[in-house]
Task: structure prediction
Amino acid sequence: QVQLVESGGGLVQAGASLRLSCAASGDTLSRLAMGWFRQAPGKEREFVAAIRCSDGRLDYADSVKTRFTISRDTAKNTVFLQMISLKPEDTAVYYCAAKYAPGWSLWIPKNGYAYWGQGTQVTVSS
Result:
């Protein structure tokens, strides 16, 4: 079974940068796709970014694609979300998710995640 632990959240001012980390255990990144989602109070969970770790194929939500970057460090079995130019509307609990995703399969970045972390809070003040 895959276990995920997020870290790196916190309270920052608008315009600041923050890097979130998701440490995976129970399997190696090479067989997984990893996604970042977020949920603000009273709002639906929304997709943020995803990476297929076998080949680095990426996808981003339109609202973040010019400001956020997803990446992985295979040696550390960790996926990152680098966020710059943070805005108050980025405030949410950010969740890491994982699914099995062979490199030959159809790339479906937004759906099908079977494993989830506990979340890390990101708060951006005005």
